Amino acid sequence: MRIAVLGGDGFVGWPTALHLSDLGHEIHILDNLSRRWIDTELGVQSLTPMDSIQERCRIWHQLTGRKIHFHLLNLATEYERLKSWLAETRPHAVIHFAEQRAAPYSMKTDRHKVYTVNNNTNATHNLLAALVETGIDAHLVHLGTMGVYGYSSVGAPIPEGYLDVQIDTPSGPREQQILYPTRPGSVYHMTKSLDQILFQFYAQNDGLRITDLHQGIVWGTHTDQTRRHEQLINRFDYDGDYGTVLNRFLIQAAIGYPLTVHGTGGQTRAFIHVQDSVRCIELALKDAPAAGDRVHIFNQMTETHRVRDLAELVAKLTGAEVAYLPNPRKEAEENDLIVRNDQFLALGLKPITLAEGLLSEVVEVARKYAHRIDRSRVPAVSAWTKDLAKRVEHDPEGKRLRSVS
Ligand code: USQ
User: Fold this and answer.
1) Which of 36, 55, 61, 360 has the most CB atoms at less than 10 Å from its CB?
2) Would you say 204 and 18 are in contact if contact means Cβ atoms under 8 Å apart?
3) What is the dihedral of CA 345, 350, 356, 361, to 10 degrees?
4) Backbone angles phi, psi at 20, to 5 degrees
5) 188, 215, 269: which to mutate for ligand 1, most atoms within 8 A of CB?
């Protein structure tokens, strides 16, 4: 298949491009490299040393003889270029990762909120409008998030995208399936909720064939392909905005930094290893909806864990200390989470569990590159409201000089 990977320079986009290229697909990455610009804005860098996208593609070609094409394009602002590219290249599938993906970054300031909404919503809508206009019958696979469901305890498993409801009508109760009500917890998660409505409309109005993957928190770094050469290495974010919880705990343990648990750590979240994430995308591509079908929704996650249990697990493995900090986010302190993921299991996914993979991540990645960590970038300081900003802990290590008077 000819596959466009939008956002193919990112944390899940890059290993996906490699995985699909390895399977023999013709891969085209479209990316505006915004993630690299944001690193510059925030004054941070990936834990792992990353080469330019052109260099990564060159190494892959040298190693395997397979070509990955790279196109510098901003999906959200260059609509006409996007349309021409699609009309010329006519991909069979389009995988859409090209969105600003960090919740804390999206809550940093009003400017970051505006950027995230403009970027994510326009990127998705431009793509949908261009697919209709060019008449390309590509299967669109979108990286959504488990966060669209929200994190209040419901006491029942979260279904895959749709909820069975009964509506009372004058002629008696009627059964219906509706999109599971969204309850996003950040501006970033809100954009993914908006994406769901855009997909529903374009599937119903234009017969676009769309799969939306509600992914949990990705952990890990390597996949089978990124391991093959030092210069193919995946990015690994550890800073307070882009670092996700488990990967942050791993690097904190590696540098003797207290594990930064927000609040009581009673937040339960869904997780998936990056290797399983790329495998799920392969499986979703094979299970394309037909024109006229409703959007296919999969829960792309393999296990659920409570944040404090993860901290304790990492502490036990490494001897790290755990710090319970004021939570900069507005979120439920404690929640239960049961998630259905039957569809991927039925398609043959064999999940990598935390228990198997964790130690090798600590040793192979976190410790190996620990010298590249800037400790001052570890604290999570983006607060969800002005009131919460007042109690953010900027110094979890307690290293700043204190007044003695
Ligand atoms: N947390 C800590 N300590 C930290 C960092 C985070 O306790 O040092 C807590 C947060 O308060 C939150 C939980 O860990 O309760 C998860 O935070 P996260 O930063 O790992 O994940 P999140 O902000 O939800 O976003 C990440 C990805 C996003 C993806 C989402 C999937 O950045 O792109 O959509 O995970 S999900 O969480 O299932 O919605």
Assistant:
1) 36
2) no
3) -100
4) -75, -35
5) 269
Q: What structural domains does the chain harbor?
A: 2-381 (3.40.50.720)
> Mind listing the pLDDT tens digit for each residue in 156-201?
899 999 999 999 999 999 999 999 999 999 999 999 999 999 999 9
Contact 163, 346 (CB under 8 A): no
Supply the residue whose CA is at minimum distance from atom 16 of ligand 1.
245
- Phi, psi (deg, nearest 5) at residue 263: 65, -135
**Ligand 1 pocket by Cβ (under 6 Å):** 101-103, 145-147, 215-217, 244-245, 248, 260-262, 267, 269-270, 307, 327, 329, 331, 380
CA dist., res. 391 & res. 287, Å (int): 47
Question: How would residue 355 be classed by pLDDT, with cut points 50, 70 and 90?
Answer: confident
Residues 102-154 pLDDT 10s? 999 999 999 999 999 999 999 999 999 999 999 999 999 999 999 999 987 88
Please provide residue 233's backbone torsions phi and psi, each rounded to the nearest 5 degrees: -55, 145
Atom of ligand 1 nearest to the CA of 240: 8
Which positions ≥6 away from 288 have C-beta within 8 Å? 93, 139, 209, 211, 296
Name the strand (E) or helix (H) holding 218: strand 217-219
Just list the catalytic residues: 145, 188, 192
C-alpha 222/C-alpha 366 separation (Å) is: 12
Q: Which structure tokens are listed for 329? A: 């986010």
Q: Do 190 and 114 meet the contact criterion of CB atoms below 8 Å apart?
A: no
Q: What is the bridge-based pairing of β-strands 162-169 and 172-179?
A: antiparallel
Split at pLDDT 50, 70, 90, the class of 401 is low
Contact between 151 and 185 under an 8 Å Cβ cutoff? The reply is: yes
Kindly state the average pLDDT of the residues 247-259.
Answer: 95
Cβ atoms < 10 Å from Cβ of 162: 14
